[in-house]
Amino acid sequence: MAGSDPSSHMTGKELLIVLVISLGSFMAGLDATIVNIALPTIAKAFNVSTVLASWVLNAYLIILVSLLLAAAKIGDIKGYKKVFVTGFVIFTVGSALCGIATSVELLILFRMVQAVGGAIIAALGSVMVTSYLGERVRGQALGLVAMFTMLGVALGPVIGGFLTSAFSWQYIFFVNIPVGILAILLGISVVPALPAVFPSSRLDTPGVILIFIALGSLIFGLNQIQTQDISTGIEALVLTVVSSTLLYIREKKEVQPLIILSVFKNRAYTIQNINILILQMGLAGVMFLMPFYLEIVKALPTGTSGALLLSLPVGNIMTAPIAGKISDIIGTKKPIMIGFIVMILALFLLSAISVSSHTGEVAFYLFILGAGAGIAFAPLNSAIMGESPDSERGMTSGLLRMMTNLGSTLGVTITLLVATAALGPKMAEVAAHTLKPVELTAAFDSAFLFAMGLQIIALFLMIFVRNTERSGV
Q: What is the reported pTM?
């Protein structure tokens, strides 16, 4: 599909392929956030605690993050088209099962089924773009995929809130069914059936299990240390360290490893994967804390708060495709560094907000943050895929999605820990809405400064990455 057309414009067929892949990214992003706003309703419907209901979200996240690399490997073995369409089938069936679940335990189980499909369609996005489209349009294609991913993440709470209030919580899952069927039909008819990259390879099952234990215990442990059950959280994090060590030892000796450790000898590859994690940590932390600022400090209704928060993904959506296209022409390093500089500026401005700050001012800062992330994210994806050897692009695609989702998880947890440390024991002892607005604002400002510090580190690391000029343009 690479073709010999020297132009930097996608053909109609290439655009259709990208749209099918983007639809998968949109659904994966949507279902990572659509459940959040419906959790109280789900807890009430099944008459269970909020803690138990939260596993409707946590179970999905653990399975999704843990299976991304395995899904990419299976794509290498069986062929990307076949596995991608199968992923959508699993995702759609899982969504239907979630909608008809008769207990919270069944709902959690069916969410895990849904997450298996979500992991497949998320893991294969970048490698399919890289395999089916030429280098000349890689950046803009990945920019479109990034735009749809952020659109799904942004619209999740909005769509979830509307469907839950207008109909019932089941419809947040039923809405996936027609979209899933459309994606399956388009995938079958539009996506080319290229030969499998490694048809004779095999899946490193022990490696998959160790990744599941390492990431599952990490997510569980980070959640637990924020509760009164700190000892269980620490035990889970110790398990993370042990299983990660065992994974490293295994992958180093394995003939057909799940993670090819030799690729990390490439400095640019390693640094830019770390920067994907850092970028996502900053975004997730801000998106987690801002509702508290808007609803508690500024006393805004939930609907108004949600509308203001949309300014961040709007900024991202407006810049990601443009930045991807520009990176196809001038290389990836400059757009990435500009993106981080814009994010640093936005986080500095957010760290100065106070009780008296105007909501329009805050929305503008969020827009700038989203725009900066959009400028950096698509070129980062393109750069990482470009640094990956052809034989390891499947693994790289899965690793990209894993770093993105892991960044979201770490961003929420660590940002909250920083805010808690800045406020002192009060934040852990009493409900947030009972604290003085000025105290909350000071804690949030500290968290935003911490996020800014992370982006400064990412910008500094980019100094050690060479620029990648595009060929054929």
A: 0.77
